[in-house]
Specification:
Strands 10, 11, 14 and 17 form a four-stranded mixed sheet that branches. Strands 13-12-15-16 form a four-stranded antiparallel sheet, with no helix packed on it. A hairpin with a 4-residue loop joins strand 6 and strand 7. It has two domains: about 190 residues, Alpha-Beta Plaits (2-Layer Sandwich), CATH 3.30.70; about 90 residues, Immunoglobulins (Immunoglobulin-like, Sandwich). It is about 15% helix and about 40% strand. By secondary structure, it is an alpha+beta fold.
Length: about 290
């Protein structure tokens, strides 16, 4: 049987908040019996954009991660909520807007923090995959309709086809070790979870600090080289996809002008600043083209 899944392209989110606004527009002041009661005007959105800032100036990267109800096949909220929460045949999870009243415990049951509390109605609420629209012949949810950068892609296929696609495209789910079996998949999730080590190679040439292009830069761990790159036209280099809190690394830089190395302890992404190679000063005529 075909079921709904949502694919989120992490690198495409620019924090424009169109998805959040569309969700609020759909539910604030609007009652959809059997699906969801009206959302609180001043309450939290059931779609949230998390932000992660890595590195330091001038090498800074900001990554945004949309998070909403994952419509889990082994939903923790359903285990707590009982008959107040149902799982439809098409994979969508619905919190009953009548049976769930007063059930604040349902909010705490979600390991993804995707359930919000409507204080006015005393009701837990979440993103319903716009099931009321899909049941009215819509083909995509409003978050996808409103997004200008194609962050979201709703697909309705059988589970075996979805798993095959996930394997082929390296799609992953949040906190998979929990065993909740989410139906929301992320592309390029490494951009959210991993770190980088970067820096800039320079040299004192003719009395001026200049960028050094094409320096060979090695990333070394426990005495072994694990990756190599070259500095670009601005002297910058960067190693991506490094596990957070992974400990000690060494950067080794080699160029015709000389060499330099730097040790660092990685917890979060780090910009090492300028790393100067060569003698204190070099005449411009002595620099190879």
């Amino acid at each position: 049987m075909n079921k709904w899944n949502l694919i989120i392209n992490v690198g495409r989110c620019t924090n424009c908040y169109n998805c959040v606004i569309a969700d609020r527009d759909e539910h604030v002041g609007n009652d959809f019996p059997g699906y969801a009661a009206p959302a609180a005007e001043q309450g939290e959105s059931t779609i949230r954009i998390r932000r992660r800032v890595q590195g330091s100036a001038p090498m800074v990267e900001t990554v945004y991660l949309p998070v909403m109800c994952n419509h889990c096949d082994n939903a923790p909220c359903q285990k707590v909520g009982g008959d107040a929460i149902s799982k439809r045949d098409d994979g969508i999870v619905i919190i009953d807007p009548v049976k769930a009243r007063g059930r604040r415990d349902i909010v705490k049951s979600c390991p993804y923090g995707a359930i919000v509390w409507n204080e006015e109605l005393q009701l837990p609420q979440t993103w319903i995959f716009d099931a009321h629209l899909l049941d009215s012949d819509w083909t995509i949810p409003r978050c996808q309709q409103a997004c200008p950068t194609d962050v979201f892609e709703a697909v309705k296929i059988d589970d075996s086809a979805m798993k095959a696609r996930a394997k082929k495209e390296n799609l992953r789910r949040l906190h998979e070790k929990l065993g909740a079996e989410p139906r929301v998949w992320y592309r390029d999730l490494d951009r959210w979870e991993t770190c980088f080590i970067g820096g800039s190679v320079s040299a004192l040439i003719g009395g001026r600090v200049e960028c050094v292009k094409d320096a060979k830069v090695s990333l070394v761990r426990n005495g072994a080289k694990i990756e190599e790159t070259a500095s670009d036209n601005f002297g910058d280099f960067r190693f991506d996809g490094i596990p957070a809190n992974s400990g000690a690394y060494r950067i080794e830089i080699r160029h015709a002008l000389g060499s330099v190395s730097r040790d660092c302890e990685l917890s979060e992404s780090v910009y090492l600043g300028e790393l100067a190679v060569g003698p204190v000063d070099v005449a411009e005529d002595d620099v190879s083209p």
